[in-house]
Automatic annotation (TrEMBL):
This is Holliday junction branch migration complex subunit RuvA. The RuvA-RuvB-RuvC complex processes Holliday junction (HJ) DNA during genetic recombination and DNA repair, while the RuvA-RuvB complex plays an important role in the rescue of blocked DNA replication forks via replication fork reversal (RFR). RuvA specifically binds to HJ cruciform DNA, conferring on it an open structure. The RuvB hexamer acts as an ATP-dependent pump, pulling dsDNA into and through the RuvAB complex. HJ branch migration allows RuvC to scan DNA until it finds its consensus sequence, where it cleaves and resolves the cruciform DNA. Its main location: cytoplasm. Residues 150-204 are annotated as: Domain III. One of its GO terms (molecular function) is four-way junction helicase activity. It is found in: Cytoplasm. The keyword Kinase does not apply. It comes from Phycicoccus duodecadis. The lineage of its organism: Bacteria, Bacillati, Actinomycetota, Actinomycetes, Micrococcales.
Amino acid sequence: MIASVRGPVGHVGLDHVVVEVGGVGMLVHTTPATASGCRRGQEASLATSLVVREDSLTLYGFAATSERDMFETVQTVSGVGPRLALAMLSVMGPDELAGALVRGDAKALTAIPGIGAKSAQRLVLELKDKVAALHGTGTSSGGPAATAAAGSGEPWREQVSEALVGLGWSSKQAADAVERVAGSAPADADVAAYLRLALREMRR
């Protein structure tokens, strides 16, 4: 079990980072919020969860141990794998997710792609007491906002669309959200800011 990684950041994506550990670049899948808190060339320290499959070893990283614990806790529910667990934290954030589970707010959970009404009710039923005991509602929300510029033109469109599809939405849903965000984002917005706005649009 790899419980944490620490080292200089070699690459930052919208939903992943590469951390140099002992001369090895480790690809760590993260939420957009965690990724946006990392800076290339600066040291990062992430709490991690290693998911072992027959054909792969996948590392997931989080800005706080409480967020990693939430990631692992939601996977105790049948049908919730690491990809959906990461989507839950990406769309709602750890504070809001914990609050929804503790309050029994199944409707809020249906904003996450891949979670319908029945799945949301099952999550609440199985996790309400567990989350209240282990996490409360004060879970850390992750790192600070990103500062990497989106650059000239609109390369952010493709990057944000790919991130949304990766979280479980369809290509059309992603394209529609990107289009709505394009006209409402501040002129100085970076790629991570566009993604946060797109996630907000998806929940409307």
